[in-house]
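SEQUENCE, STRUCTURE TOKENS:
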Amino acid sequence: MRTPPKNHVVVYPHGLGWQRGGGTLDTEGRATPRLIHAAWHQDIPVVPRRSEHTHDVYHIGLVHEGESSMLLDSREVSTRPGSLLIVSPGQPHCFLLPPRTRSVYSEVTFELVDRVGKSLRDPLHDVLAEWTGTDCPAWITGTVVKPDLKKTVADAIARVVMGCMTAPPRRQFLVNRALMDLLEEIASAGRAISDVADDPIAQVAALIEANLQEPISVNEMAEQVSMSPNHLIRRFRDHYGTTPLAYRQQLRLEAAISLLTMTHYPIKLIAEWTGFSSVYYFSRFFTSKVGTSPAAYREQANHDQHQT
């Protein structure tokens, strides 16, 4: 699939489409999405202070590179590659990007207007539930989505941006269709994520992902879902192809690689942030998995970036 140039932002003029009550997004006359702007592989803006703001628009974003966090409803949410970001109208939010770091994401910003042109302020999950006629639970912003959903969301955002770059009259059709596909995927995935509450193995995976720095034992994980440790390990391996502790180490390694590549933080600090007990153990583990030391990996990554 073709994708837009990286760091590409488009502002969609209201006069070039999104006629209320028309196109593929009629939703039986209840409300029509209207694109404001979209961005593909854009650097997350650096905010000088923790200053939340609100809009009468919806944001859907997907993090591609780097680790940072954002404030949402005065609560700090960690983000990393694969994190899905959803903000509804009236929700206070802002990005928190540490100095000398870089995080890259793609996003669409749109409003929902009713038949008289009034912008809606309902939470996105309520709107999607009304459209689909089924329960659509609220997304937890910052949730790291599975690879297949990550690709689907990224493809839909790319098609929104590419549609904006197309000449009218085809532009409206392409943008409408891509945005509707994106919203349908969000609705379907939201219902799937609600099943986590009934899936003890998914609960353990979510527990690991949310507590990478913590040395939670298999016994503690098993206790959380009322299983024996051995039974948990067997079922987790059946589902994820590895053990809970190996899964956690892989996530820690991915987080460390991202920090080494995108930041200038000391290796000792990165080891601490990613949950390794010591920088010595971190270096040994990293070298065994990657084939080079953390320092050498960072040096090569910096060299590759300068070359490009």
User: Anything to note?
Assistant: Residues 199-307 form a domain with the Arc Repressor Mutant, subunit A fold (CATH 1.10.10.60).
